[in-house]
Here is the input.
Amino acid sequence: MLTRVLEPEVMDTAEEAAEYDAMGHDEVNRRFCDDLLRLGPEPRRVVDVGTGTARIPLVLCELHPRCTVVATDLAEHMLALAERNVRAAAMSDRISLVRGDAKGSALPRRAFDVVMSNSIVHHIPDPRALFEELFGLVAPGGLLFVRDLERPRDEETMAKLVATYAASDTPRQRALFADSLRAAFTLEEAQALVAGFGAPASAVTRTSDRHWTLAYRAEPWGVSLSPPGMNPDESRGTESLVSLLRRLLALWAGAAGGERKPKTRPSARDRARERALPRGRGRPSSRRRATRTAASHTLSAGAKTG
Ligand SMILES: C[S@@+](CC[C@H](N)C(=O)[O-])C[C@H]1O[C@@H](n2cnc3c(N)ncnc32)[C@H](O)[C@@H]1O
Here is the structure.
């Protein structure tokens, strides 16, 4: 297995941004959006994390006339080209550009029906904070859709991929593609990463000869039916079935009896839990935790070189 070799995290020179924008990823961007839309339901409020020059939000908005996209990136030069592209497509009313770090932004928690991200994971040395952000942004019942390159197992596979997918590129572009492949995570590493957030390994699948994709749907109520303790990190853990039943009972009591009071005095633990929950909502957003289930759809192969 090849060792992971990092590349620079942010692509933020005018040349890099222009070169990236010119690389002609139209077909793979379209496939990314097709695969995402196939998972339904209709995306309305979408966030694209590490948007680059906003090519994917533009395709998504063309395909889906009712969605709006918040497109974020840390690189000013990427965002400058994104703004140019969005204006040229007359999409400024639907795509808003926000400069922010994908490892922790000021975007609202649990606010997006679709959280999408393409080809950014391999840029981040330790992407746990990135996944914390991605999982934290998705609304209950929303979709998390993340695709990235997969690190080849050996030099021979690496050479084949570069020859196949970057044959007509410049030597520099070929080198960049190879660097990106070398910086990428393997399928198994990606599966292990998302397991830290309660996602099953099956949520991450190989979707081409050089890509893996995470397709994961948050539980509608922002809770999971997983028994407590299934999560390797209990502090990141999901609400237990007992908690869910308690909340359903509380909802039922509220609906049936208006101001109905509990007959028994709540325990100190229950009172502490109540204090931690925002009124009428699920778990507090500061926990940045929406618990999720794997989207159970087969995805077609992605094909982006970078
Ligand atoms: C390979 S490009 C992919 C761009 C876009 N998602 C696409 O598919 O066309 C990776 C992008 O991630 C951005 N990026 C890297 N680290 C980031 C971070 N910590 N926060 C936000 N964006 C970041 C880079 O600036 C770059 O625009």
